[in-house]
């Protein structure tokens, strides 16, 4: 988009700056920055040639360094207890971890399904509006241009809904973000009138190390922007849906989308987008009850702390690596469940919402890139070999040919393999006899009987 200067007519108009067409891609140097290496979501376009068991990007190994050192350190207390607890507590811990993992992955998978549903309905609604909404250029050129600009604005709002939903799920309630402000600045929303938050400062090395090691005190409150706001921030995705509904009403009223089936489908698409909004909000704001989380964490740690004292009499010094390895397995499953419980965050294993939004925008831009196709333009094209492999002739050539009817005796004498094509137009019906190409080798010569 070409760079434009700030309008002098209104002091509140946002300045037009150069918009990067693909701001959602991670920079090439992100993987070498210590601050960003363990921050996600994972870039699906990048391919690692390292063996899976040696990878750290996406692994929970850094968060387990301190717990494993602690488990190895408690073995300095050489006390042995009855190994009967190993069997009893092992069953309880396995049951608790299975419950935690299944509920966490169910939330992760449900979030992925909602975003797949959003991608589908975005493509459907964009295609419906772009192809089936009329443009009144023949009535009035100015009105036709307004219709075209309205359709483009509608498709931009479809993309804006996905972008706004991504930011909402990450507790980013404003409208000034680079991928969002250029498509919602003209809408009357609460997020537009809210004051911009203070830009975040680069965190110090101690907080970065704490997040690297998974220490709870190093984690910031993700709802901090919501709590610190002094003005209503609204619900930007819902407000975008309201503006989309207003546009739908306008094209119903001016009869540019007058077929009732198309109107029903467009309203159903908006309803599906609203369902995605409420469904993802339900996943975000209804985590696993805190009582379950605390109990599972306590049961897991009791088992891990008692495990070395139950093994020391039978394993001796081997107890140290055995206990550390067992703790790695148990804590690893528990930490993975905690990380994917909220699939919309910025952890490496969370859903790549940036990539999902980028794909939705690319699909809508693909629809926008060409005028709505006219059926006669591609159906009657000479490259349309409608009767392939019976014939390589295009539809345009078949349209100009004289069709005739062959009797049964003629077909039998010629020995053609026939296929009938019935064309009914008004009062007349014509049977076109087509034949496959047939090779007949007689006396060393290859004679081909071509289609009629």
TrEMBL record:
Keywords from the UniProt entry: Cell membrane, Ion transport, Membrane, Transmembrane, Transmembrane helix, Transport
Region (Disordered): 1-29
Membrane topology of this protein: Multi-pass membrane protein
Pfam families (UniProt xref): Bestrophin_2
Highest taxon above the source species: Eukaryota
Membrane-spanning ranges: 56-77, 83-102, 290-309, 315-336
Record has Transmembrane helix as a keyword: yes
Comp. bias intervals (Polar residues): 1-14
Chief place of localization: membrane
Name of the protein this chain belongs to: Uncharacterized protein
């Amino acid at each position: 988009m070409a760079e434009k200067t700030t309008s002098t007519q209104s002091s509140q108009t946002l300045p037009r700056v150069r918009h990067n067409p693909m701001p959602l891609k991670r920079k090439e140097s992100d993987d070498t920055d210590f601050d960003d290496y363990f921050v996600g979501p994972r870039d699906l376009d990048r391919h690692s040639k390292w063996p899976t068991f040696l990878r750290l990007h996406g692994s929970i190994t850094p968060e387990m360094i301190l717990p494993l050192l602690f488990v190895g350190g408690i073995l300095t207390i050489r006390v042995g207890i009855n190994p009967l607890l190993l069997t009893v507590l092992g069953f309880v811990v396995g049951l608790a971890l299975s419950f935690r993992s299944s509920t966490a992955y169910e939330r992760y998978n449900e979030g992925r399904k909602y975003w797949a549903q959003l991608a589908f309905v975005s493509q459907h609604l964009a295609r419906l509006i772009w192809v089936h909404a009329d443009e009144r250029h023949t009535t009035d050129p100015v009105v036709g241009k307004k219709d075209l600009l309205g359709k483009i604005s509608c498709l931009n709002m479809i993309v804006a809904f996905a972008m706004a939903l991504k930011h909402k799920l990450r507790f980013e309630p404003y409208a000034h973000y680079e991928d969002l402000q250029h498509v919602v600045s003209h809408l009357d929303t609460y997020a537009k009138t809210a004051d911009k938050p203070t830009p975040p400062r680069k965190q110090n090395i101690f907080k970065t190390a704490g997040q690297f090691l998974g220490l709870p005190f190093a984690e910031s409150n993700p709802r901090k922007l919501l709590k610190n706001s002094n003005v209503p921030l609204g619900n930007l995705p819902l407000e975008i849906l309201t503006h989309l509904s207003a546009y739908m009403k306008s094209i119903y009223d001016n009869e540019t989308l007058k077929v009732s089936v198309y109107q029903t489908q467009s309203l159903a698409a908006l309803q599906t987008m609203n369902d995605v909004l409420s469904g993802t909000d339900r996943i975000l704001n209804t985590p696993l009850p805190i009582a379950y989380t605390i109990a599972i964490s306590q049961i897991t740690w009791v088992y891990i702390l008692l495990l070395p004292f139950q093994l020391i009499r039978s394993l001796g010094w081997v107890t140290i690596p055995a206990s550390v390895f067992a703790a790695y397995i148990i804590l690893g499953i528990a930490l993975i469940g905690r990380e994917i419980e909220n699939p919309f965050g910025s952890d490496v294993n969370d859903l790549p919402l940036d990539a999902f939004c980028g794909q939705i925008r690319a699909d809508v831009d693909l629809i926008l890139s060409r005028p709505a196709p006219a059926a006669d333009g591609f159906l009657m094209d000479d490259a349309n070999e409608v009767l392939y492999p019976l014939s390589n002739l295009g539809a345009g050539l078949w349209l100009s040919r004289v069709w005739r009817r062959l009797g049964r005796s003629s077909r039998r004498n010629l020995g053609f393999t026939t296929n009938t094509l019935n064309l009914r137009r008004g009062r007349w019906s014509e049977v076109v006899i087509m034949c496959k190409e047939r090779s007949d080798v007689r006396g060393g010569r290859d004679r081909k009987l071509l289609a009629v």
